[in-house]
Amino acid sequence: MSYRTHDVAVRGGTMHVAEWGDPQGPPVLAVHGITASHRSWGLVAQRLPQVRLIAPDLRGRGRSRDLPGPFGMPAHADDLATVLAALDVPSAVVLGHSMGAFASVVLSRRHAERVRELILVDGGVPVELPVGLDPEEVGPALLGPAATRLAMTFPTREAYREFWRVHPAFADWNDVIEDYVDYDLIGTAPDLHPSTTVEAVTEDSLELAGGEALLDALAHLSHRAAWLRAPRGLLNEEPGLYSPAYASANADRLGLDLADVPGTNHYTITLGPTGADAVADVVRRALTAAEATA
């Protein structure tokens, strides 16, 4: 399958951007989660060979980790618009997972002309938090071990793979997960570490339970939006990031087309075959709808 990369000039440096699929195919902008990279879309890309799947490493992550702050959803949205402009893509179906869904919603408000349809994968709507939680506690409360991992070092690449192999979310290991894990690790042995910066995650996590830009974008949502929910969370626990009742109430309030993806958790909704199948199906429907209204 065709795979190519670009370095796109953005504020403070260059953003690493990958593409899968047909360079002449309909464009889909795929936006990864808070501690992830573009490699989280590998399985979805395999199911959409006819699509031009454009997937950046967001500011502070992957091979874009050296891009400076400020971070936050407006910054990510502006970066995404810059990427589309640099690649001569007037507009695209926008597919966001986890924090990438939050950035996608804000993109649809700040750069509405760049978005044809929205697909939100286990993100994009303010998450449920316990009453009284302080803003600075949002990241640890939501991410738990995922945030702790960023400060860890590993002596070898195999040690990092083993760390992930025993993770409760990854009971069903596959080659794309291994590729995702290998890509995440940077440095030299025995001082290897995850590529995502603590600064980026700390700043971005403050907006996951709300955030002025996100709330404004949701209040003025003008694009058709599908919302896929994983029944299980970051540690394969139930009910996941969004409880069924909370998800249903917000889908009704915001006019989102909500669907559960049974048998998935917050990671495997993109990195597992069941989740990738479901995401790819929704992408195809969005592309058909976008073509019909063009």
Automatic annotation (TrEMBL):
The keyword Hydrolase applies. One of its GO terms (molecular function) is hydrolase activity. Signal peptide: none annotated. Keywords: Hydrolase. InterPro entries: AB_hydrolase_1 (IPR000073), AB_hydrolase_fold (IPR029058), AB_hydrolase_sf (IPR050266). The keyword Hydrolase applies. Residues 26-133 form the AB hydrolase-1 domain. Pfam families: Abhydrolase_1. PANTHER family: AB HYDROLASE SUPERFAMILY PROTEIN YCLE, MONOACYLGLYCEROL LIPASE. This is Alpha/beta hydrolase.
